[in-house]
Design a protein that fits this description.
BirA Bifunctional Protein, domain 2, 2 domains, 40% helix
Length: 339
């Protein structure tokens, strides 16, 4: 039996020496040391040995196993090294090859427009306030003085989550949230997403963007609103821009107005862009309704304020001459890269 073991050792040694790759080496290991390996087979036969022979042969068998394991280990290291060298030389890096240019994104025209609007108002001393997109009926309608039967509350116009929760239809609720938190003087703008149950077409999107503005202090008048919007219009649409107020109705302002800007394409002469009128619609605005101030714990006898709200998507489309609002939300880089 001892001779058989020595023979196995020699055979294994030879096969290990000849193995040139990791997989071959692994096969050799299984062949000799595996569960059904040749050495294992011999050891299984030890049961038939006499009590004197058993420890002797056992010792030899252990030595043989250890020596095979050692040979396998050192052969494994050698082969690994060889394989690594081979890989390194075959995978050599050609540093003169042209690289793969990483795809660089672009600021979305809407974000560019929003940043520009923010910059203009921050330059006039406004701060940016934020409010939630999922809003309560109270903040979106009640606190803003909207009567219970106001059509904008309708299920067909507003996305209701339940009786009290909606997706905000305007950024105006941020006015209320701000007045509840801060004491006058208040000077904030609030850009953000709004939602209305509109079927998408060239001018409607169920998700769109507004920028709200609010100023509250002692002695704020319509003249302050007019001056502020004039400065804004000149910055955003060009130095020669004029603005005009048209009477309108919003529940949260009194008086209310829609504000038009002289057409920045024809300077008010009348062109196809402004449909010959010389004016383009810019935003809604007005003096904060005393009820709204009261709802927020601000005394309308002491303080007054103005507010305005504009559709960012519409203004950006106007400025960049984009004729379909849906283009803003398709994220097609061929479109976005143009701005
Ligand atoms: N929230 C109004 C809308 O969605 C826009 C608006 C009009 C906001 C007048 C105002 C405002 O703050 O004073 O149509």
């Amino acid at each position: 039996m001892e001779a058989k073991l020595k023979e196995l050792q020699q055979l294994a040694q030879q096969e290990i020496r000849e193995a040139g790759a990791s997989e071959v080496l692994e096969k050799v290991r299984v062949k000799y040391l595996g569960k059904k390996g040749e050495l294992t087979e011999v050891l299984r036969g030890m049961g038939s040995l006499s009590a004197e022979e058993r420890p002797l042969i056992g010792k030899v068998a252990n030595e043989v196993r250890e020596s095979i394991e050692e040979m396998l280990a050192s052969a494994k290291n050698l082969i690994k090294e060889k394989e690594l060298l081979a890989r390194l030389s075959s995978e050599s890096l050609d540093v003169t090859m042209p690289g793969k240019a990483p795809a660089v994104g672009k600021r979305h025209p809407l974000i560019q427009g929003m940043d520009e609007l923010k910059e203009i108002f921050i330059g006039m001393g406004f701060r940016v306030a934020e409010g939630p997109e999922v809003e309560t009926v109270y903040y979106n309608f009640d606190a803003l003085n909207a009567p219970p039967n106001h059509p904008s509350r309708d299920m067909s116009d507003t996305f209701y989550i339940n009786d009290n929760l909606i997706l905000r239809t305007q950024t105006s609720p941020v006015q209320v949230r701000t007045m509840e938190k801060l004491k006058p003087p208040i000077r904030i703008i609030s850009p953000g997403r709004c939602f209305r149950n509109d079927t998408p077409d060239a001018t409607h999107s169920p998700m769109f963007h507004q920028l709200e503005g609010l100023v509250v202090d002692k002695g704020i008048t319509l003249a302050d609103l007019k001056g502020t919007l004039e400065v804004f219009a000149k910055h955003f649409l060009g130095e020669h821009t004029k603005i005009k107020f048209r009477p309108h109705n919003f529940p949260f302002t009194e008086p209310s107005a829609e504000v038009d800007a002289s057409c920045f394409k024809c300077q008010g002469e009348g062109c196809s862009f402004c449909k010959g009128s010389g004016w383009v619609e810019m935003l809604g605005a007005g003096m904060v309704h005393p009820n709204v101030l009261r709802n927020c714990g601000i005394d309308p006898e002491v303080y007054s304020g103005f507010a305005f709200g504009m559709g960012i998507d519409r203004l950006v489309m106007m400025k960049y001459e984009i004729d379909d609002i849906r283009l803003l939300f398709e994220n097609d880089m061929r479109f976005i890269n143009q701005f």
